[in-house]
Amino acid sequence: MTDTSEARPADGAGQATEQSTLRRLMRFIPLIAPVLLWAVPCWVLLYAGQHWPLPVTLGGTALFVAGLITMPLAMVRGHGRRQQDRAAIVGDTLLGGSWILFTWSVLLGVLLRLALSVAGVGDGQERARIVTWAVVGVAAVLLAWGTFEARRVPRVRRLDVQLPRLGAGLDGTRVVLITDTHYGPLDRARWSRRVCETVNTLEADLVCHTGDIADGTAARRRAQATPLGTVQAAHARVYVTGNHEYYSEAQGWVDLMGELGWEPLRNRHLLLERGGDTLVVAGVDDVTAESSGLAGHRAHLAGALDGADPDLPVLLLAHQPKFVDRAAAGGVDLQLSGHTHGGQIWPFHHLVRLDQPALAGLSRHGARTLLYTSRGTGFWGPPFRVFAPSEITLLVLRSPRTK
Fold first, then answer.
1. Distance CA 250, CA 232 (A)
2. Domains of the chain, first to last
3. pLDDT (tens digit, 9 = 90+) per residue, 187-229?
4. Would you put residue 51 in left (φ > 0), alpha (ψ -120 to 50) or beta?
């Protein structure tokens, strides 16, 4: 008995020590990550056997050091208390550029160097210089292409979604989803107008925006968001908050969307009637709402469905895909979400999967519930999209009861 009682506190103390050590290490990640993003490409491009002339090595090193110093300073000035848009643009661009350089320095620095060695191409210096130019070339192409992909009007992605409980009168209902517009430091008012014009060509019965309208307050980004008021729908335009609204005075965005003619579905629902059948269209605040401390904001599915006929099919708007566990438990037929951006810049999607149950597209959860996760209409932070194209989504709801 004595040995056992003494062992338990010792084990608990050991676990507490391990957790404390882990927390201390986690604190250093914001310091370590930027260093790795710039140090690894610097080493692969300049010091891994290339033997460049001294001026080239020193000049290249100076550029990487300048990037390492400038990026965090610009991010702090751009996204901190000062909210300086120009600084944010510089910091975000450097972040995206360094991520792409880091990724391809690691991949080509290992795989291409190994392939060249196996193939017997040149000596060590020649192989090192081939890797350098390959990394620079691939990064340059991806940065140019990624810029174009981020700034273009998204292509329309169309798919039919069959809902077993959907009445025949609702067959063919056209639901358009936009999300994660992220109006921000780059003025995209013209882009916003063109997105809304594209949406209006789709003859939607219902248009949905599942949050993350902007980075910044409604007052600050109003000009970019105003074109949303021109969006047309036969039945309704509905909106729910995303996590970024809670960084930027969420109630201001709720009020502005209402002013623009959208119906904010804050833990409530409305009914869409068509052909004698009815669809419950519900929405919940983002899952981060309650921790924001903003009075009355929280994700509350029971409140959203309060008073709805349980026999009717339910379409739910929830910003983050991970809300689908609650949606499935609540009998929701289809959840529409965004948040993931499809990873935005490959291979960041591997990190997204650690936090979310779906990255993009249609997926099934439980016996009844389908989840559609959009890759987003805009972009966040770094103005690039690499292997994760943006989208405007047209979902055509189908009923199995149609003859």
1. 24
2. 2-150 (no CATH), 155-398 (3.60.21.10)
3. 999 999 999 999 999 999 999 999 999 999 999 999 999 999 9
4. left
